[in-house]
Amino acid sequence: MDRARKLALVSLLFDMVYSAYHIIFGITTSSWWFFTIGIYYAILSIVRFVLFRHKGEKRFVLRFTGIMLMVLSVSLVGTVILAFVKDRGTEFHLIIMLAIAVYAFTKITLATIKWIKARKSKSAELITLRNISFADAFVSIFSLQRSMLVSFEGMTEIEIRIMNVATGSAVCVIVFLLGLNLLQQKI
User: Fold this and answer.
1) Taking the CA atoms of the chain, what radius of gyration do you get in angstroms?
2) Distances (CA, A) of 68 to 133, 161, 165, 186
């Protein structure tokens, strides 16, 4: 359990820095996408922080995190609409795209490992951390996909928009279900 808490603390610190970077970059470049993703990670950081502060209050942690993930899923709908209407993605150099891909796939791999370890656990903390990790990882995959579609040739503008809406909608539903899963836990 201590190792899981340490890893979650590192994730919290990383999310705070990642959030600040996106908010600042979004403001300086007038990019609503970066700004909203920064806000998403700021809220995710708050959720992780609350998880650390309320160690003994299992029911509160599950309910709070579940509700916050459901709220975040609704706010992600705005980014999906934004991806379709205004901002189709940011084009990056191949090296940066590779770094983003490694980052996103590392997150999904770590989240999957946490899920495997926590699937039989009755620990509210482990279950909550698992769901937060998946919410974090799926948004990273969505961001990666948006950037990849505009960084590499092969798709038309409308195809890119359709892919962004399809992937973004799936991520919204998944994050909502992760929150609902926490609300339904009987611990």
Assistant:
1) 17
2) 14, 28, 22, 18
Q: How distant, in Å, are the alpha carbons of 5, 66, 179 from that of 119?
A: 17, 17, 16
Q: What ranges in the chain are assigned the alpha helix state H?
A: 2-29, 32-53, 58-85, 94-118, 124-151, 157-183
Give per-residue burial for 69-95: e unless 16+ CB within 10 Å, then b: bbebbeebeebbebbeeebbbbeeeee
CB 88 within 8 A of CB 160: yes
Residue 17 has pLDDT above 70, yes or no: yes
pLDDT digits (tens, 9 = 90+) for 69-98: 999 998 888 888 877 787 656 677 788 888
Nearest to 140 by CA among 179, 111, 182: 111
Q: What angle do CA 30, 15, 44 make, to 5 degrees?
A: 90
Lowest-pLDDT range of 11-15, 129-133, 164-168: 11-15
- Residue closest to 143 by CA, chosen among 71, 94, 79, 48: 79
Q: How far apart are CA 27 and CA 169, in angstroms?
A: 25
- pLDDT computed for residue 171 by the predictor: 95
Tokens of 166: 């399809």
